[in-house]
Amino acid sequence: MWAIIGFIIAIGAPRLVSVYLYFFSGWFAGVFQTKGWPILGFIFLPRTMLWYSAVAHWWGGHWGLWQYVLLAVAIMADLGVGKSTYKRKPYGYL
């Protein structure tokens, strides 16, 4: 039961933060040139969209080494690269 609740929170947290920032602040104003990119980011890559907008606000859109490294981390987190691929073998096999 706790795993399901944790999964829902992990999946929903970046989207909830995005919705909060969109409706209650001007965080996304001027970051994206079209309305399509934030919508696609919200659906498919919410952490990456949040990091892109953070770089636009905190560093004025300047992309350095650490910004790219953390962008890669955000993309991997969104795509689930760190998930385990270990599969349990049936009983009786080595």
Polypeptide structure, described:
64% of the residues lie in helices and 0% in strands. With 94 residues, the protein is mainly α. It has one domain. The relative contact order is 0.10. The model has no long low-confidence stretch (mean pLDDT 88).
* Terminus-to-terminus distance: 31 Å
Q: List the total number of helices.
A: 4
Tally the beta strands: 0
Query: What is the helical fraction, as a range of percent?
Result: 55-70%
Class from secondary-structure proportions = mainly alpha
SSE string: HHHH
Oligomer: single chain
Gyration radius, in Å: 17 Å
- Low-pLDDT parts are none
Short recap of the structure:
The chain has helices spanning 2-24, 36-44, 46-58, 65-79. The protein is mainly α and 94 residues long.
Helix and strand topology:
Blueprint: H1 2-24, H2 36-44, H3 46-58, H4 65-79
Helix pairs in contact: 2-3, 3-4
Question: What key attributes describe this structure?
Answer:
single chain; 94 residues; mainly alpha; 4 helices; globular
